Amino acid sequence: MPFEPKFIITPKINKALVEIERVRGFLDAVNLKDDWIREMQAKALVLEAHHSTHIEGTAINLDQAYDLLSGKKVAGVSHDDEKELLNYKKAMDFISKYLGKEDPLSEGLVRELHKITVSGVRGGSAQPRAYREIQNYVANSRTKEIIYTPPPLLEVPHLMREFVSWINDNIREISAILIAGIVQFQFVHIHPFIDGNGRTARLLSTLILYKTGYDFKRLFTISEYYDKDRPAYYNAIQSVRNNKMDMTGWLEYFVDGLRSQMKEIQTKGEEIIKNNAAVQKIKKKDLNDRQEQAVKYLLQNGKITVNEYQSVSSCVRRTAQRDLDDLLEKKVIKAVAKSPTDPTKYYVLL
């Protein structure tokens, strides 16, 4: 029988879809500065690469991920972990080329996405681009207990053809967000490759969103929500199999995760708008470039010390103190003692 997902649009799903559309409208309407967009896109890319590979077992922490993706060498990180992280970043860059493109999805594109994701990892045993030629299993990473046996290998090519065909036939008929959720589950259910299925599924889900105008300015990270509570993620996937392949529970989980991401993005965007207005108001007090940088730091962090001012503004201590004294005189900031017993000062905005 051809692939035909089973689900209903519950009030919970509908409410989440409405909230996601509101944030989409906010992002389309609001005037956010390009430098902030670029900064947040870069951060989202690191978070997505880190959390998606972390779900699969890499031991890299977030600080190490930032360093590695900025081109720095990090001691004590395994080659495979580093390569998986860098591969994922390449795969995200690859799918970014498909923003808004309406051409049909192909199995070749899926295979290429897999190739980028697993190339050079674990000695190439993941067989980049090639559908699996053995029976694989999904096991509990802690107990090693088999929790799911994917379809037989001889069924994979047929299942993938039906899967891709269904996407192309329905991508304009069903909510793109629901399509992205269905795609993510069905891909891991088929488990077409020896390894890299989870990562490829999340990338493919993101690709669907990018292609259909739901890129949200590339500010979201779909994997962060899953990595924060992996048992809930796995349980949501398994709920489909436990409920006679009804995807409703999984889709409720999927859209709620995206909704929470969107609300965070909107909150950050509103904060930036507020901060930009404050910066423009303060700029009228004739600040130098160092002081403007310090004010932005204060808006983000709430306070600043002389040492932090030196770091933020790249200046010597004497210059930092002179700038701070000038900001005090212009009534932009005020000095606060750390405590009654510690007279060391820090500075906050008035």
From TrEMBL:
Active-site residue list: H191
Keyword Nucleotide-binding applies: yes
Pfam families hit by this protein: Fic, Fic_N
Keyword Ribosomal protein carried by entry: no
Entries under SUPFAM superfamilies matching the protein: Fic-like
Ligand binding (ATP): D195, G196, N197, G198, R199, T200, A201, R202, Y233, Y234
Keyword annotations: ATP-binding, Nucleotide-binding
InterPro entries: Fic/DOC_N, Fido, Fido-like_dom_sf, Fido_containing, WH-like_DNA-bd_sf
Transmembrane feature ranges: none
GO terms assigned for molecular function: ATP binding
Residues at the site labelled Important for autoinhibition of adenylyltransferase activity: E56
Residue ranges annotated for the Fido domain, each copy included: 105-256
Protein name per its UniProtKB record: Fic family protein
Organism name: Candidatus Auribacter fodinae
